[in-house]
Amino acid sequence: MSKINPISGFPEFLPSDRIVEQHFLDVIRETFELHGFASIETRAVEPVERLSNQGEDADKEIYGIRRLAATADDDSGANLGLHFDLTVPFARYVLEHSGKLAFPFRRYQIQKVWRGERPQEGRYREFTQADIDIVDSGELPNHYEVELPLVIADALRKLPVPEFVIKVNNRKIPEGFYRGLGLDDVTTVLRIVDKIDKIGPDKVVERLVEAGATDKQAKLAVQLADISSTDTSFVEQVRALGVEHPTLDEGLEQLGAVMAAAAEHAPGLLMADLRIARGLDYYTGAVYEIYLVGQESFGSVGGGGRYDALASDGRTTYPGVGISIGVSRLVHRLISLGLLKGSRSTPTAVLIALTAEEDRAEAMRTAAALRQRGIPVEVAPAAAKFGKQIKFADRRGIPFVWFSTDNGPEVKDIRSGEQVPADPATWTPPGEDVRPQIEALEENS
Amino acid sequence: MSKINPISGFPEFLPSDRIVEQHFLDVIRETFELHGFASIETRAVEPVERLSNQGEDADKEIYGIRRLAATADDDSGANLGLHFDLTVPFARYVLEHSGKLAFPFRRYQIQKVWRGERPQEGRYREFTQADIDIVDSGELPNHYEVELPLVIADALRKLPVPEFVIKVNNRKIPEGFYRGLGLDDVTTVLRIVDKIDKIGPDKVVERLVEAGATDKQAKLAVQLADISSTDTSFVEQVRALGVEHPTLDEGLEQLGAVMAAAAEHAPGLLMADLRIARGLDYYTGAVYEIYLVGQESFGSVGGGGRYDALASDGRTTYPGVGISIGVSRLVHRLISLGLLKGSRSTPTAVLIALTAEEDRAEAMRTAAALRQRGIPVEVAPAAAKFGKQIKFADRRGIPFVWFSTDNGPEVKDIRSGEQVPADPATWTPPGEDVRPQIEALEENS
Predict the structure, then answer these.
(1) CA distance linking residue A110 with residue A107, whole number of Å
(2) Which residues constitute the domain of residue A374?
(3) Among the listed residues B158, B362, B192, the one whose alpha carbon sits nearest the alpha carbon of residue B277
(4) Which of A319, A354, B11, B244 has the least CB density, counted as fewest CB within 10 Å?
(5) A161 to chain B, minimum CA–CA distance in Å?
(6) Is A133 annotated in some ligand binding site?
(7) Is residue A391 situated within a structural domain?
(8) Chain B residue with minimal CA distance to A311?
(9) Per the record, which residues fall in region Disordered (chains A, B) (predicted)?
(10) Which residues 323-342 of A have a C-beta within 8 angstroms of B?
């Protein structure tokens, strides 16, 4: 067997960091359920034709799968690819099961996705996303465009996450604006403007001109991308640029309504930012990106938007809106900044010490009695001296060691050294010691 | 977009069945943590060379992945395959991170795995497994071979699962027995005998003879596979066949110890069954298969074993033992038998009715107050008449609808029709209505 090397883009956690990730996933799930979202999981694979043509980036990123032992006449697994997000599979799930779902359908989905992009800091080829979406049959009310960021904010605020902002735009604004300007290849313009943070406004103007825009059109497109506000004042700033189009009016009205409602329910949570584009082509209305304040250069830790035409079977269309938390990106980021760690590397709160192998059966009964009351316990792997048992617990951060003594069972808090008599039927560790805790550390940066 | 068809072997749940699966996963996780197992997740992919050569079945089953847009000089993703179990990736994880783990290392892992086999009832190409393993550095005590089935039984007994039995064997018994008989190609003999349930004992004898055994050797091999006992009496039955080999002695002693200890801690849980083989080549000691009693023909719903040489870096070997619950197989089976279902299709316990769209802000505040106290709530999608709101809740199984009336807020139990005044700061539904319950139904079969 060859030497073992990590595979770039496929990160893994050690047990104590995994405890941090589990805490994030538990809080996110609990919050989504409190808001009435039902869990589903979709299979990891979709037909490649369904994954393709969702946007420039997506097409480059698909992993195909094939049975290594497949014979020529066995096409099973042919033309299947790993999903690169959870929205495209969800849209397919809705179409496939529409007869058995109740609309509007609120679902959450926490799963891995795969993207074959070039690995770089914070960009993974395999990562976990936590998505909420609401789809309806026929028409989707606009109020969901306000509700979803509130749900996401509710989850993130229960977590040890630094200050964040959800930036929001509406695809109809750039689309209407570009059309009003006379730029009709909206997708191309959008993709070029989307690079503004990477290449700067001058290069964007240059590329727009290369793509056929006049200098004036290009500059106005860049000016639009510069507009932002934490209230509805962005509307006036767009109007001041003097471009008119019915789609632009629609977009401004919808985003204005979102910002007005957000101001009532969660002042400061949303920022209208007309630079926000999202790389995927299926969005048609509101688009969101979640940023850690002051860490915008790291990129977003989540995002989403409204898609009106992704799920359609020709007869019925199921418009939807969704937002995703990039759990892996977020947790890896906070851990790598040294902001969070698990208080121990195991769920175990109590180690039952063994002085002789013959006592194992008795130790297992003690362990069972403690577990019955929700206390995580393990029995020592082998009979050993006092000091060795303490060391075993200490190495894993297990706070308590249980001993059989001539005076009956006793339990030692190995941090304080305090040792007291204990009855397996009644003794309970302090609440904060029963399960590993997430420790928020001082910022290292 | 082409018509949507399910992909054979990649099953998906509707929301109310997913609630059953989530309950299983929650109880399994909770039990594993109470027994001191730490969670890890490994990436979905491993180098193909690491996945290969783990057994006849495994090799046929590997899905390779490749970037669809990969160019000839870009070999990223080359020679990676989706894992077909969680043991091989875990062994690799142990080797990769051995310097940062504390041994013996107890871990659980609940993830999807993929196998490109021919789909048939209860055989999936994508399914979820829940594994526990304990690995040690250098030597692994035998008592873990008893502990692991006890943990699995603890989990299954907390679940609405029919009676089950864990059948256990020790690879050294057939190996020593075959060698004692003079059959030295143990792997080939094992694979042929493993087909006994499918093709019957006569065909097994025939195939063994084709593979070079004498008639007498073949018949004795089949006789061995026929031995079983719920106590240690299997030892005498093997002795009576008159075959001798030191490896056989070792296997009988180890399996005898497992059965003796199990009789003390969990009488009736284990059955020694010398037919149990497991299809994977890496097992070297105890092997387990979990069956639902009376449904043996469905195949096992879990299994595992001891592997002494899977994780080795040349200097250090990390022997391990593990058992896996085939969660997808088990849950799909129980649901398809009509034994289990979720009490509703959504986490929502209370629907806040809306009589006018202007009341949405107030309804959202009521919802937030209820959620604060752990009650899953959603606000009606649109203002509508009384009857329509009740129908909306009824269709999803939501038990309570919250109304604003001229006398203040009231809540209606739509099952009984009872409607009472309610304060968002204090009203709480009965405990069993807060979350969806798993309903165990009468057996249909």
Answers:
(1) 10
(2) 350-430
(3) B192
(4) B244
(5) 20
(6) yes
(7) yes
(8) B1
(9) 411-445
(10) none
Residue B297 has pLDDT above 70, yes or no: yes
Mean local confidence (pLDDT), B245-269:
93
d(CA A253, CA A145): 13
Q: How many CB atoms lie within 10 A of CB A51?
A: 25
Provide CB contacts within 8 A for A100, sequence distance 6+: B14
CA contacts within 13 A on the Cβ side of A271: 17
pLDDT on residue A445: 42
Residues on chain A touching B66 (C-beta within 8 angstroms): 63-64, 66
What's the rounded Cα separation, in Å, for the pair A37 and A110? 12
Res A71: pLDDT: 63
* pLDDT grade for B281, boundaries at 50, 70 and 90: confident
Report which of B351, B152, B354 is spatially closest to residue B266, judged by C-alpha positions: B152
Rounded to a whole number of angstroms, the distance from the CA of A404 to the nearest CA of chain B is 20
Residue A25, number of CB atoms within 10 A of its CB: 16
Measured CA to CA, the distance from residue A238 to residue A259 in angstroms comes to: 15
Residue B86 assigned ligand-binding role: yes
> Residue B413's domain is classified under what CATH number?
3.40.50.800
- In a domain, residue B72? The reply is no
Note the pLDDT of residue A133: 98
Contact assignment for A68 to B77 by CB distance below 8 Å: no
- pLDDT tens digits, residue range A33-66? 999 999 999 999 999 999 987 766 666 689 999 9
Beta carbons of A72 and A37 less than 8 angstroms apart: no
Over range A17-34, report the average pLDDT.
98
What is the number of domains present in chain B? 1
Question: Which A residues, 372 through 411, put their C-beta within 8 Å of a C-beta on chain B?
Answer: 374-379, 381-382, 392, 395-396
Q: What is the 3-state secondary structure (H, E, C) of B224-248?
A: HHCCEECCCCHHHHHHCCCCCCHHH
Q: What is the pLDDT of residue A139?
A: 94
Residues of B in contact with A347 (CB under 8 A): 33-34, 36-38
What is the distance between the alpha carbons of residues B33 and B107, in angstroms, rounded to a whole number?
A: 9
**B375–A48 CB contact, under 8 Å:** no
- For position B444, what pLDDT does the model report? 45
Residue A444 has pLDDT above 70, yes or no: no
Please tell me the distance from the alpha carbon of residue B60 to that of residue A69, in angstroms, as a whole number: 5
Q: How far is A421 from chain B (nearest CA, A)?
A: 22
Interface of A with B in 50-69 (CB under 8 A): 50, 59-69
Most confident of A280-294, A399-413, B42-56: A399-413
Length of chain B as a residue count: 445
The whole-chain average pLDDT of chain A stands at: 92
Q: Which residues of B130-146 are buried (b: 16+ CB within 10 A; e: fewer)?
A: bbbbbbbbeebbbbbbb
Q: Please report whether residue A395 resides in a domain.
A: yes
**pLDDT tens-place string over residues A60-83:** 689 999 988 876 555 555 689 999
The C-alpha of B277 sits at a distance from chain A's nearest C-alpha, in angstroms, of 24
Q: Look-up: residue for tokens 């305090």?
A: A418
Mean pLDDT, residues B310-321: 91
Cβ separation of B2 and A47 shorter than 8 Å?
A: yes
* A409: in domain: yes
